[in-house]
Amino acid sequence: MILVTGGLGFIGSHVAQALLDLGEECVLTRHRSGPPPAFLRPAGRVAVEPLDMTDRDAFLGLGDRHPITGIVHLAGVGLGALDPIDELRANTSGLLNALQAARDWGVGRICVASTIGVYGGVRENPLREDAPLPPGTPHTIPAFKRAAEELTSVVSGETAVILRIGAIWGPLGRPSSPFFAIPGLVNAAVRGEPCTAYAGDGIDALYARDCGRAIALLQTTEKVHHGIYNIGSGHATTNAEVAAAVEKVVPDAAIELADGRSPDAPDENLVLDTSRLHGDTGFTLAYDIEAAVADHVAWLRRSQAS
């Protein structure tokens, strides 16, 4: 049975679905009590537990109620939800509780979420897991994730897998992102609202369903050969490609693209090297940009109708 902290959140829900598709049983935590969404309700295979991840006793108590053999730790305080010090304190406490639970329960593997943001300042492209990370970071999220990677490696050693997650979008995600344009372009088109972007800007974007499957494979694959894995598509998707895909399913989409790249864009669109992920799990994309946009538009329309 796999514990997914934050298992009813954006990425966590897709990880849970992918684990269920692989035949696993799951324990999913959420900060507030409530039933899982309909697509996560196969009888007897999903347990939902309300959990404050900073509560050590409550966290460890999960192991008394469930035969947990693996952990995917995704839970964290939301962006800007707390003062930076309180945010770091909560996320560090949650991480340490997850690491202690993994040790106390003797789990075979704990996967811990990190971010593409840890590569800030790295000049090589594509971004490789073994690239040296320059000192310093301007934001609490990559700062914490860098520290979390080190703590996880020290405490959990060979049972730990670090997930450097790229730009993820799709069902249950935010309608817009301060980091890349794809969610905003798709959501605005479905709402019938205008949206602008630079045609040449792009990022290594991965559809949420593919992201969930990649993480589930890393959790369940019998043997992994590395401690850190990039979770991405392995190529950059430009806003021009997104707009073309959107217009195929929303012909009247009011997307206005400016030529070239935005003034504050990096010199080139950054890409995650996903050789490790492909080599150790056999993961391949199920959704190219056209299939992803079509699926997400359909999901958004169903959500609006319900």
Automatic annotation (TrEMBL):
It holds the Pfam family Epimerase. Residues 2-232 form the NAD-dependent epimerase/dehydratase domain. Signal peptide: none annotated. SUPFAM superfamilies: NAD(P)-binding Rossmann-fold domains. Belongs to the NAD(P)-dependent epimerase/dehydratase family. This is NAD(P)-dependent oxidoreductase. The lineage of its organism: Bacteria, Bacillati, Actinomycetota, Actinomycetes, Streptosporangiales.
